[in-house]
């Protein structure tokens, strides 16, 4: 990519699948968009697809996927160790269950932040709650690495309701079309809730920022400067942007470093996300659901999981769901505390 007035070092990557080619300190970012049909009252599709591979349905071509679900779409119980998962449920709902007794339902803009640490199993199911209309669905799941001294920290799980997410207007008009949601970190002097102390994002010098925004054609966003070892990763999901002489098209990811503020102008109505973070200067050895530093640590992770299942699995099925009539809630701190969204106090027996 041509070096411009603002970009010091940068490269544009094409995004041609659900996986966004993210870089250190992030391990993986996946954007799942599914046009789910009406539900059958049991949170499964009203009409099941024909000729599909049950339990492994990722590229169906029908506009929606079952993923690893047999009845309800989603990801039944599976383990993690050594990193954090940050799940942004933009549209639709997710039912979470884990091996520590935590569970809950979130969606339509909520964020789940889970630190797998030394080991945790969880299930993420996508209940189709609407029975008379379609169930549009979009999530962005982010795997954030942990440095070696944090890889074996105690696991934790927290939900952040969309009602509490800071939103920064980016223009003096149409605030619903020109805004920035601060999912993690801060945008200048507007701060999101600070992560748990075991998170890589807890220390401000790691500059973990995750933003989601929209802009109308002709409007701009300015991204502040960061140290040289901090990458700004600017993903364009819809529309088109320009900065200096560089254009970032739809389904593209610009990764750059800069010692000064960079301004992006929307060439079309646009939707975008920004992922920022300081590199973790360590070897990464990842295999399946585990992200460690060495092969030996991966082998140990599999051995430990076989011994105790990372706390076992206290639920009756590996693909549990919340009853369809329940709203959003979170049971956390090993199942001892319950939290509801603002103005949404519901009855739920835990």
What does this structure look like?
The structure is a single chain. The chain folds into two domains: 134 residues, Jelly Rolls (Sandwich), CATH 2.60.120.10; 173 residues, Jelly Rolls. A seven-stranded antiparallel β-sheet has the order 1-21-18-23-16-13-12, with no helix packed on it. The protein has a six-stranded antiparallel β-sheet with strand order 2-3-10-5-8-11, with no helix packed on it. It has a six-stranded antiparallel β-sheet with strand order 4-9-6-7-26-27, with no helix packed on it. It contains one helix and 27 strands. By secondary structure, the chain is mostly beta strands. It starts with 8 loop residues before the first strand and ends in an 11-residue tail after the last strand. It is globular and about 55 Å long.
**DSSP strand (E) fraction?**
35-45%
N- to C-terminal separation? 54 Å
Please, how many helices? 1
Query: What's the SSE pattern?
Result: EEEEEEEEEEEEEEEEEEEEEEEEEHEE
Q: Count the strands?
A: 27
- Per CATH, the class of the largest domain reads Mainly Beta
Features:
single chain, 350 residues, mainly beta, Jelly Rolls, 2 domains, 1 helix, 42% strand, globular, disordered N terminus, disordered C terminus
Would you summarize the structure shown here?
The chain has one helix and 27 strands.
């Amino acid at each position: 990519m041509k070096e411009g007035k603002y970009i010091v070092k940068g490269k544009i990557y094409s995004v041609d699948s659900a996986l966004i080619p993210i870089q250190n300190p992030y391990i993986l970012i996946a954007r799942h968009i599914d046009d789910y049909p009406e539900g059958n009252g049991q949170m499964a599709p009203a009409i099941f697809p024909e000729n599909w591979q049950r339990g492994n349905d990722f590229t169906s071509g029908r506009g929606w996927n079952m993923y690893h679900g047999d009845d309800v779409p989603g990801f039944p119980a599976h383990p993690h160790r050594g990193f954090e998962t940050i799940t942004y449920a933009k549209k639709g709902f997710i039912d979470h269950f884990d091996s520590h007794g935590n569970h809950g339902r979130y969606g339509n803009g909520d964020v789940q932040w889970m630190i797998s640490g030394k080991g945790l199993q969880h299930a993420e199911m996508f209940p189709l709650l609407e029975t008379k209309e379609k169930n549009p669905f979009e999530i962005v799941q982010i795997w954030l690495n942990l440095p070696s001294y944090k890889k074996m920290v105690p696991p934790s799980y927290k939900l952040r309701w969309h009602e509490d997410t800071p939103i920064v207007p980016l223009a003096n008009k149409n605030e619903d079309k020109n805004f920035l949601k601060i999912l993690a970190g801060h945008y200048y002097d507007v701060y999101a809730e600070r992560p748990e102390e075991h998170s890589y994002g807890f220390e401000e010098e790691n500059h973990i920022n995750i933003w989601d925004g929209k802009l109308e054609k002709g409007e701009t966003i300015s991204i502040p400067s960061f140290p040289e070892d901090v990458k700004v990763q600017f993903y364009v999901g819809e529309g088109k942007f320009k900065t200096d002489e560089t254009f970032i098209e739809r389904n593209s990811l610009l990764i750059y470093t800069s010692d000064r503020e960079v301004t992006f102008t929307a060439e079309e109505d646009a939707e975008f996300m920004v992922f920022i973070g300081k590199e973790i200067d360590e070897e990464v050895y990842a295999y399946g659901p585990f992200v460690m530093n060495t092969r030996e640590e991966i082998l140990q992770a599999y051995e430990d999981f076989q011994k105790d299942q990372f706390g076992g699995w206290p639920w009756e099925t590996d693909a549990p769901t919340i009853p369809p009539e329940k709203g959003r809630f979170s049971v956390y701190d090993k199942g001892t505390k319950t939290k509801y969204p603002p103005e949404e106090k519901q009855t739920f027996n835990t």
